[in-house]
Fold:
Amino acid sequence: MDREFPVRITVAADPANYELTRQWLQRHVGTGNYASKPHIMWSATRAHCVFFRDLHTAIMFTAGCPHIRLLAERYTGPRG
Structure:
């Protein structure tokens, strides 16, 4: 998936907005031009990773879906 869809955006898994986001992706990006899968963050936060073929489409997604919440998390490694 990394070669075909190299751009990844992680968004909060909000059931209320899932259908709206999916419809937007199908309408503006097309079914074969993105991929998504569930993801669990290091902090146990539920999320979805959405993968795109290029950066332009990913930026279009963030601009066209103001209802999504982007997530980022830094892994600090084991503490010792």
Observations:
- DSSP finds two helices and three strands in the chain.
